[in-house]
Amino acid sequence: MFDRLEITVLPPGPRWSAQVRFWVNGEDIVEEAVAQGGRGPWASDVLPEGRHSPLRGTGEARRLELGEPECTGGCCGFMTLVVQRFGEIVRWSDRQVPWPAHTLVPHPPPDLHFDAGQYDAELTRVEADRWWQVYSRLA
User: Of the ranges 60-69, 71-80, 100-109, which one carries the lowest mean pLDDT score?
Assistant: First the structure.
């Protein structure tokens, strides 16, 4: 059985630019890893205009930074993972979570396996919906 990915872009606020959250099987894995007050990656970094997202699964493994605690990643570390495509499967593996979130997340966190069709469709949807740029340009 595959894991299911949903991507949400949160509007910019007084402290942060628009940020991205990742829901896997109905759970916000960023909040789980970085705790309340932390943040996901900037939308402009993982959903760049005019080119594909670095979240796209390819045959080449890439480590991505997907979360940071409120105290900053330089203090307690970042939530990172490796994304790679294997035929019709996109795998998120080798997840690392900031300290002390490791007490809230199973260690090591399990690998996640997505149906490549569902994964690609979700990325295409969120890459095309650029509503957050309007707010980012006003700020």
Answer: 100-109
